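Protein modeling request. Please complete all fields; requests missing the sequence field cannot be processed.
Requester role: graduate student
Desired output: 3D structure, token encoding
Chains: 1
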Amino acid sequence: MRVDDTKGEMMITLYRTDQDDRIVYYSINDRQGHLFSAHSFTVNWGPALTVGREKVYTFERRSDMDQKLQELLQERIRSGYRVLYTYFRDHEYDHLRPTLRRAAVS
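Delivered output (106 residues):
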């Protein structure tokens, strides 16, 4: 069996300042596949990227995953998050770029 190395990699890191002026991070990535699902991504959030909470979202269809990504980003941007960092290996996530541009730090 040949390993498919064409799968894109994505990482999006957002941040905002809470009511106590502390920075809170929200990071989305698809660097690790899921054993029981065709499509997945992981979300980490908290006061640091290495500490905090984590949730894995799994999907059978790519379209469902794309829709959830869009929803999460829009929710976070509405709640005051700004883009700190983005990385896209391929053009697989180009549909997210317009949403991310609206929250980019200039």
